[in-house]
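Renewal narrative, Specific Aim 1. Our central claim is that a sequence can be written position by position from structural information alone. The example that follows is taken directly from our test logs and has not been curated for this report. It begins with the structure tokens describing the chain, in the order in which they were read.
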């Protein structure tokens, strides 16, 4: 019964995490806080360490409200009377250091209360996305009534010396998502969050200095405090699905879908492989008893592999497990519990156990899913079940790549890249109708800009990296926000940053407008069969020019001119339009290959790609029937560098713009290959068998295009004020769907009956638009619109 009680306790802790948006006392945003940043040492340190803090609070009665603000460097978990009430801080940078706001009144009681926090810093091994000044913790009461809980020397602190970092050296390719944990349970501080815990030997925390909100004075270390702009992350308990391999012991049949004790005999080496059935981001929890000095290693992987070939992700025989690890050394007591500090990404967990002179009892293994709390508000009803399967996989991919920021991938990097985030933002609009993480991404990238004008390619990131084409995608992402969200003030605030980006590029434009000598990494795509491509950068000719870069700049000038004309300065709009005309003329002269009726990647016309010709269509450099002819050649012409799963987002838009939209469902080969090979999220590259990451949301564009292209739902004016419906249903005879809109929901239904289409379109009230059907425009009003065409 103890194992069931422990499982229930863990669930209650996580389920008790209910955080509500609260008002912040205005003075806390304009004056120094009365709470201090506290630490275990006055020394400035950023080394690996885990620290626990306690504060006893006596209350005459249970309060109706008790609002606090909390942050830490690097991360924290906050408990009130044993209940987990907050995790954070949300990832940001030093000049915008987030704090969370929580009303802890529901967890307080009359009499004695224990406020406790675990704070940690993984030092040089911390995730690349985690910036740090030094390890510290701060908690501020919202008003004078709550200031009794402020962090200062009244808080007690102790380092938990049981932890050691486990560097991750055995994954495939670039890995910067943090170390594993090694914990010796004999040294582990247990029950520190409980009222019964004896803290008489703990030392008072050292007060460093007062908390400083952004824009107020100066701080010796930084941490310009700002309210977190995003909601708390979701925490949902989940069970693993099944056991796939076992050696050295027997596993009871209910496990792991239900708790069931597993006894590992003394002096035994055993191993078993657990399958979640789908990829997940979760905090794993292991509960075990006895087994003095036994070692339990948990290894996490997206898939097993054979010589670097992952093959079918459902298959495990003949393959090996390689990945991030946690190591727990048992102390022989009952109900020893391990939950990772930060979440892990896995489909498979392998437990490798080595006991000494005492049996070890595995009481339970389960996990708690976490991620940005997106709710899917979009549905698709089709006669083709494959479409819904793709939507499900794409939604899972998008969710696993969304935490406190968007992430390129959860297992390897957890970094917010602009190129990825633009696609992720559109998925958020089309599937969830939630723009908070989008605004956060646009803000963070704006903050990352260098003095020369270019943004960093990813942010937050401890190591700066510049990809100038991604700065152009930031402008594209800003334009998307303007197009789909009714928030002109936010966009207008970003126009100065947009101008700085374009000013950066203008320094490298020649008199004819063409770019030359642009510095940094010019990554555009992991092109397939990309002759002349260099580590993702497109071909550059002998004179230092690139058609793809010129076209990308042309497109961005077009988008920037629209933003300036709609919200900014007419003079900038005019200047950008002049650049558009100049670049159009130059690109046509330099790169059009009459012999092949294609745009070349270079002026020498020795390399050709889908990418360059894609942007030629999207920029309107070629239109009408010539564009349709070019689109057909993009698909069929041999010898072109092929767009990866990422760049197909742009390729497919170009093909649709050129009039081939009814063929969209024929272009999903790479997604079908992912499904055939057992992936439950979309892989990073088009080489599905050997791709590094099994989860990259830049490949989830069908979650946009099933609604934008197939159902035909798009914005017709800024802020989605009016709606354009232009379906491309291909050979389907019946399809319907709905998606969120700033004013409500859009619902469309198409059904072919006796060679006539029965069409019903429901728009939100106070919304209008047009149905485009076979070249004709039909007006749409708020409410139900029915057609027989």
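The sequence written for that structure reads:
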């Amino acid at each position: 019964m103890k194992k069931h009680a422990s499982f229930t306790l863990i669930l209650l802790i996580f389920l008790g995490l209910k955080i509500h948006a609260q008002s912040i006392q205005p003075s806390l945003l304009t004056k120094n806080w009365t709470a201090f940043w506290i630490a275990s040492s006055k020394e400035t340190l950023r080394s690996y360490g885990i620290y626990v803090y306690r504060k006893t609070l006596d209350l005459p009665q249970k309060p109706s409200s008790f609002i606090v603000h909390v942050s830490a460097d690097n991360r924290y978990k906050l408990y009130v009377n044993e209940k987990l009430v907050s995790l954070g801080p949300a990832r940001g940078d030093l000049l915008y250091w987030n704090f969370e706001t929580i009303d802890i009144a529901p967890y307080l009681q009359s009499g004695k209360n224990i406020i406790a926090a675990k704070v940690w810093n993984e030092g040089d091994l911390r995730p690349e996305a985690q910036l740090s000044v030094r390890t510290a913790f701060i908690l501020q009461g919202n008003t004078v009534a709550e200031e009794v809980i402020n962090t200062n020397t009244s808080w007690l602190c102790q380092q938990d010396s049981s932890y050691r970092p486990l560097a991750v050296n055995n994954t495939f390719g670039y890995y910067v998502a943090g170390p594993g944990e090694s914990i010796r349970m004999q040294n582990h501080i247990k029950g520190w969050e409980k009222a019964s815990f004896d803290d008489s030997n703990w030392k008072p925390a050292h007060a460093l200095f007062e908390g400083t909100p952004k824009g107020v004075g100066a701080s010796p270390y930084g941490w310009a405090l700002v309210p977190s702009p995003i909601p708390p992350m979701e925490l949902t308990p989940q069970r693993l699905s099944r056991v796939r391999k076992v050696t050295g012991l027997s596993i009871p049949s209910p496990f792991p879908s239900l708790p069931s004790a597993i006894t590992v005999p003394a002096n035994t080496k055993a191993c078993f492989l657990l399958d979640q059935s789908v990829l997940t981001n979760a905090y794993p929890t292991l509960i075990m008893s006895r087994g003095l000095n036994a070692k339990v290693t948990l290894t996490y992987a997206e898939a097993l592999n054979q010589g670097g070939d992952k093959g079918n992700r459902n298959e495990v025989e003949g393959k090996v497990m390689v990945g991030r690890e946690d190591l727990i050394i048992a102390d022989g007591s009952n109900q020893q519990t391990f939950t990772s500090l930060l979440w892990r990404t896995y489909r498979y967990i392998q437990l490798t156990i080595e006991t000494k002179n005492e049996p070890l009892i595995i009481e339970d293994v389960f996990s708690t899913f976490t991620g940005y709390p997106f709710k899917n508000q979009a549905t698709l009803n089709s006669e083709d079940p494959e479409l819904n399967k793709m939507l499900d996989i794409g939604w899972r991919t998008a969710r696993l790549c969304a935490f406190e920021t968007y992430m390129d991938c959860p297992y390897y990097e957890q970094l917010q890249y602009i190129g990825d985030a633009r696609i992720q933002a559109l998925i958020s609009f089309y599937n969830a109708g939630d723009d908070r993480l989008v605004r956060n991404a646009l803000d963070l990238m704006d903050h990352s800009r260098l003095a020369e004008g270019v943004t960093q390619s990813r942010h937050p990131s401890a190591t700066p990296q510049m990809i100038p084409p991604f700065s152009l995608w930031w402008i594209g992402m800003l334009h998307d926000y303007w197009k789909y969200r009714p928030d002109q003030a936010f966009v207008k605030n970003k126009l100065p940053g947009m101008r700085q980006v374009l000013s950066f590029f203008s320094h490298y434009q020649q008199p004819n407008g063409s770019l030359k000598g642009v510095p940094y990494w010019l990554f555009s795509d992991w092109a397939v069969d990309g002759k002349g491509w260099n580590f993702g950068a497109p071909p550059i000719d002998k004179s230092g020019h690139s058609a793809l870069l010129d076209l990308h700049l042309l497109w961005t000038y077009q988008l920037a001119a629209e933003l300036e004309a709609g919200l900014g300065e007419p003079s900038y709009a005019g200047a950008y339009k002049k650049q558009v005309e100049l670049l159009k003329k130059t690109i046509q002269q330099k790169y059009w290959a009459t012999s092949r009726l294609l745009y070349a990647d270079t002026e020498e016309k020795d390399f050709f790609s889908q990418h360059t010709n894609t942007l030629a269509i999207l920029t309107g450099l070629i239109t009408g029937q010539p564009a349709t002819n070019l689109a057909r050649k993009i698909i069929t012409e041999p010898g072109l560098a092929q767009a990866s799963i990422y760049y197909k987002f742009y390729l497919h838009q170009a093909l649709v713009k050129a009039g081939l939209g009814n063929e969209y469902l024929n272009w999903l080969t790479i997604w079908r290959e992912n499904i055939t090979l057992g992936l439950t999220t979309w892989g990073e590259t088009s080489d599905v068998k050997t791709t590094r990451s099994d989860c990259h949301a830049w490949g989830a564009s069908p979650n946009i295009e099933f609604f934008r292209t197939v159902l035909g739902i798009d914005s017709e004016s800024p802020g989605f004020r009016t709606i354009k419906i232009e379906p491309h249903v291909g050979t389907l005879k019946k399809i319907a769907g709905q998606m969120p809109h700033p004013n409500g929901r859009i619902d469309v239904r198409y059904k072919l009956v006796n060679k006539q289409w029965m069409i019903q379109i429901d728009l939100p009230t106070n919304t209008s638009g047009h149905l485009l059907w076979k070249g004709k425009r039909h007006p749409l009003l708020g409410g139900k619109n029915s057609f027989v065409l």
